[in-house]
Amino acid sequence: MPDGTEPLQLFGFWRSQATFRVRVALNLKGIAYAETPVDIDSDATKDPKFRALNPMGAVPALIVDGVALTQSMAILEYLEETHPEPPLLPRDPLGRVRVRSLAAIAAEDSHPLIVPRVRRYLTETAGFEAGQWRAWQHRWFAAGLAGYEARLAGAPETGTCCHGDAPTFADICLCGLVAGARTFEVPLDGYPTVLRIVDHCMAGPAFERARAIHQADYPG
Question: Cβ(20)–Cβ(48) under 8 Å?
Fold first, then answer.
């Protein structure tokens, strides 16, 4: 477990939803880190040095005591176990399973279908043209957003955040999904509960600092 004297090293990419999740969790827990950009739109992820950190060639990777932690949700679980305050999971088992289930809508159901390696396969191997890829993107962003809206709207557990009034894994994942949807100009009509929660969370400094536009490799 890091002693806090040196910033942790995070390998990420400005647009990566998965890196966004880790940034937000680190910010919320007050853990110092320095990010090294890895351009996932190029061949950078094929570099043997990076593949030694993550054989899947994906971001993020968080270096802790010389060990490369990968997969954003596993990293969030590690941070929750080693830095329990402020908590990003509810105390009760039913609350925890609800939050993890909501988080999985983005992290497991939607996001994996629109990452660059899927785009490359569909456009370079499966014959997708630009318009077909865009339709594919919009389809899976919309599926995730609709799933969140249906689960959140009117649920007694929903507060100013996805579960109560403090951010959890569910809010971190939802904000990343909406950020990605906005980047790729996915229509957001029809998700009022989602947008209310995202606007509330993104007004907080931990979420704001994790935004793509604040990252060193942001191209804008």
Answer: no
